[in-house]
Amino acid sequence: MQTTRITAPAFPAVSADELETWLRIDCGSDPETLSLLVGSATEIVEGLTNRVLGSARYRIDFAGSALCYSLPISPVLSVESVEVDGEPLTGWRYASGIVHFEALPASAPVVTVMAGSTDVASIPGALRHAIAVLVSASYNNREEVSDQTIRTVERLCAPHRRIVW
Q1: Total number of domains constituting the chain
Q2: Contact 63, 3 (CB under 8 A)
Q3: Is 112 helix (H, G, I), strand (E, B) or coil?
Q4: Model confidence over 87-104: pLDDT tens digits?
């Protein structure tokens, strides 16, 4: 299975203003670096939790043919399409993170979904904190993030991990 983000997140999980305050830097002094670091930190937190933070469109290419597939990301806002061999597929339904098929698909399906939080307020504070910690460590050190920082981020993310089988 391969999951690919096909649109950029609708909004950053932590704003530039919040990061400038966190880092105690002048407003607008290094926007490109902050944007790069918040994007990278968000991807790390999303990877640790299997949660999408800012809403975006994803393509999920499954392997093999089965009657149901568990989607590897959450929260799923909508399943936009299901295709097999490039053709739209009917006879499926989505419920509780799983796409169910009425009949066995001829080959592995490709599912397109909108996933993520609909606004910053719905992103857990601990995950936003983890992003700020990573951005701060990367901004201040520029090269290497310490093991202690990684452990802090993992602890902040742990209660929000989504286990996918």
Answers
A1: 1
A2: no
A3: strand
A4: 999 999 999 999 999 999
